[in-house]
């Protein structure tokens, strides 16, 4: 009897272990099933990501180390020769500088104007939907189609802009035909195109600010609109402003349509920007390897800009 009792006592822990293992396996089955379903649902998006983003990006990186030209049946790997040529290329340096100037003008001006317009629309109850639609129209319109309108507006002799300046005795410049003003003319178009989209984002951010914060600020002594803006609106718009700044920089660096349609990079390469230079090298001169090296540098610039921006601005953002 003592022997049978000891056997039963020894079997109980083993039985409990098997039971716990079975329960654990049964509990993990639904988790595994959910994981499989999640992967199946994500598979189409992953496939598209690989086919249209990752593989083309990898191909561009590889081609950047070759002398591949369209129309030639063979090519060879040239190492970093394309990159060495790139940084000694005056056209590339000029396009990089033009892109920097364009971005430095369009990004801050479009953000400030969009915020000001959004605050005016938010403060006005009547006609809010109308003004929101009017300011958003440039985003919905085709920039290539609007190029004809801008050519007329910037015309040096019959254009409304120079006609308006002449009323005040100011001689209007040749906005798109002179090296000294072409970038400013293109920047005006870029601001016009960006303000509407940025305004909608700021309107969404303003709507999300609790009204109680303004009442509390008034109790604490915020009597003027500037005090309310400084103490409540601006801090609460931090995440929105960070996102708007990111999108504005990306869109400014990617400027291409207005340059291709209105100036073709002229006069004397005064409006040639990075994407237009890449287009010229790849699709006009057919130097795909060299254009790919330019594209890699362009992508690297975007990544560095976004990294620096988030490192600097994200620390100052208040997330509600």
From TrEMBL:
<keyword id="KW-1003">Cell membrane</keyword>
<feature type="transmembrane region" description="Helical">
    <location>
        <begin position="101"/>
        <end position="121"/>
    </location>
</feature>
<protein>
    <submittedName>
        <fullName>Sugar ABC transporter permease</fullName>
    </submittedName>
</protein>
<comment type="similarity">
    <text>Belongs to the binding-protein-dependent transport system permease family.</text>
</comment>
<dbReference type="InterPro" id="IPR000515">
    <property type="entry name" value="MetI-like"/>
</dbReference>
<feature type="transmembrane region" description="Helical">
    <location>
        <begin position="231"/>
        <end position="250"/>
    </location>
</feature>
<keyword id="KW-0614">Plasmid</keyword>
<keyword id="KW-0813">Transport</keyword>
<dbReference type="GO" id="GO:0005886">
    <property type="term" value="C:plasma membrane"/>
</dbReference>
<dbReference type="InterPro" id="IPR035906">
    <property type="entry name" value="MetI-like_sf"/>
</dbReference>
<feature type="transmembrane region" description="Helical">
    <location>
        <begin position="133"/>
        <end position="153"/>
    </location>
</feature>
<feature type="transmembrane region" description="Helical">
    <location>
        <begin position="284"/>
        <end position="308"/>
    </location>
</feature>
<keyword id="KW-0812">Transmembrane</keyword>
<feature type="transmembrane region" description="Helical">
    <location>
        <begin position="37"/>
        <end position="65"/>
    </location>
</feature>
<keyword id="KW-0472">Membrane</keyword>
<keyword id="KW-1133">Transmembrane helix</keyword>
<dbReference type="InterPro" id="IPR051393">
    <property type="entry name" value="ABC_transporter_permease"/>
</dbReference>
<feature type="domain" description="ABC transmembrane type-1">
    <location>
        <begin position="96"/>
        <end position="309"/>
    </location>
</feature>
<feature type="transmembrane region" description="Helical">
    <location>
        <begin position="182"/>
        <end position="210"/>
    </location>
</feature>
<dbReference type="Pfam" id="PF00528">
    <property type="entry name" value="BPD_transp_1"/>
</dbReference>
<dbReference type="GO" id="GO:0055085">
    <property type="term" value="P:transmembrane transport"/>
</dbReference>
């Amino acid at each position: 009897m003592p022997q049978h009792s000891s056997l039963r006592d020894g079997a109980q822990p083993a039985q409990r272990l098997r039971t716990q293992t079975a329960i654990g396996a049964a509990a993990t089955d639904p988790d595994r099933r959910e994981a499989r379903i999640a992967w199946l649902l994500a598979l189409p998006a992953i496939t598209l990501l690989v086919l249209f983003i990752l593989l083309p990006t990898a191909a561009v990186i590889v081609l950047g180390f070759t002398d591949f030209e369209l129309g030639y049946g063979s090519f060879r790997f040239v190492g970093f020769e394309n990159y060495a040529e790139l940084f000694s290329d005056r056209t590339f340096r000029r396009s990089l500088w033009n892109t920097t100037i364009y971005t430095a003008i369009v990004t801050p001006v479009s953000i400030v104007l969009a915020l000001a317009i959004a605050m005016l629309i938010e403060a006005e109850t009547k006609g809010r939907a109308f003004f929101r639609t009017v300011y958003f129209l440039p985003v919905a319109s085709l920039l290539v189609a609007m190029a004809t309108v801008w050519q007329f507006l910037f015309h040096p002799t019959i254009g409304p802009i120079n006609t308006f300046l002449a009323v005040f005795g100011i001689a209007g410049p040749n906005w798109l035909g002179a090296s000294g003003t072409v970038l400013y003319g293109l920047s005006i178009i870029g601001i016009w195109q960006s303000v509407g989209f940025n305004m909608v984002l700021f309107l969404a951010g303003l709507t999300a600010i609790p009204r109680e914060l303004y009442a509390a600020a008034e109790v604490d002594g915020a009597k003027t609109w500037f005090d309310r803006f400084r103490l409540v609106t601006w801090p609460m718009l931090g995440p929105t402003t960070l996102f708007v700044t990111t999108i504005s920089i990306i869109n400014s660096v990617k400027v291409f349509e207005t340059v291709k349609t209105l100036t073709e990079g002229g006069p004397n390469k005064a409006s040639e920007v990075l994407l237009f230079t890449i287009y010229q090298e790849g699709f006009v001169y057919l130097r795909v390897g060299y254009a790919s090296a330019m594209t890699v540098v362009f992508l690297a610039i975007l990544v560095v800009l976004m990294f620096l921006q988030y490192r600097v601005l994200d620390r100052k953002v208040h997330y509600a």
